[in-house]
Each structure stands twice: as C-alpha cells, then as structure tokens.
Specification:
about 180 residues
Length: about 180
C-alpha cells in the first residue's frame, strides 16, 4: 500500500493551503495598510531570501506595530514621533503598562529585538541562518532566549544543559508565527 498521497488528496491539501493563505491575506491587509506596507508584505517575509533580512524586517514591523498600537490606545496621532523615538524596551514596557501587551508578549517581543540586534549587528551573519545563530548560543543564553521567545514556564522551560529542541531547524517560521 502506497503512502504517497493521491492526486486528489494533493489537490485538496493545495486548496486548503490556498484558502488559508487567502484568509491570512484578508486578515493582514488592514494591518498592512495601517503600517503603510504593501499588501502581502508580511506574508512575503517567510519567503525572504536570507535570515538576516528576515529578522531585521520582522523586528522593524513589530516595533512599528507596537508604536501604532500605543498611539491608537492613547488616541493621539501627534504622539507618533515621540513614541517611535523611545527605546524599544521602554516602548514595550509602556505597551505592557497600558494593557496593550501581556507580560509574556512583552518578553517575547523584547527577545525578538535582542535576537535581531545580536544577529543583525554582526557582519559575519550576513547570509547566515537563525538556526546556526541559536545553535551557537551558550547554553544559558540559548535557554533564556527560547524560554522568552516561546513564553515557557515551569517544567516546560529549557535548561542550559538541554539539547536542541524539535524546532531548532525552523526558527524563521516560529519567529514569524509569534
């Protein structure tokens, strides 16, 4: 008995994926418009040529989204330039204080920014992979990064002695889906 999907099964899976992508595009379109990026830009990040460009663009989009959320929450567009000029960690803290982000979301987005800064500010990472970056982190930093990125607590937390988890080869997709 063959485990290869039939053409019909493949067509059904393709149709489901297409429907999911269309729903995601529809859901993201107003968000992209508010951020001032072209429609389809956010989903296009997954196809970015290299991880360096991906992490930089993703982090910039997240920072812009948090800034827009704070300004919208305060109902004062005149504050945009001031809020966007605040250091990212302080902006995340402000979003948390205002109830826009949960503590876990704040920590996750802060670790995303830390990852971006550590990865993007090293020329040797141009063309490198996020998988290799995370794999090269010392155990304590590796565990801290994963615990914050995935909001892990208690028995689910990684420890510095742990080996690479099941998702070690898919950091780009995991970061994108946060």
């Amino acid at each position: 008995m063959s485990t290869t999907p039939s053409l019909r099964e493949q067509d059904e899976r393709d149709a489901t994926r297409t429907e999911q992508m269309e729903r995601q595009r529809e859901w993201l379109a107003p968000f992209e418009k508010r951020l001032g990026v072209p429609e389809g830009y956010i989903l296009g990040l997954v196809s970015e040529a290299d991880d360096w460009a991906f992490i930089v663009k993703l982090a910039v989009l997240v920072e812009a989204a948090v800034t827009r959320a704070i300004v919208a929450h305060l109902k004062n567009d005149l504050l945009y330039n001031h809020i966007s000029g605040i250091a990212n960690s302080r902006r995340l803290q402000l979003a948390f204080t205002l109830g826009i982000l949960s503590k876990d979301e704040m920590l996750t987005l802060d670790m995303l920014a830390v990852t971006r800064n550590s990865f993007a500010h090293k020329v040797e990472n141009l063309g490198g992979s996020l998988d290799a970056y995370f794999a090269a982190l010392p155990g304590d930093k590796w565990a801290t990064a994963l615990n914050q990125l995935f909001s892990l607590e208690g028995k689910d937390k990684y420890k510095s002695a742990d080996k690479a988890p099941w998702h070690a080869g898919t950091f780009r997709y995991i970061l994108f889906r946060m």
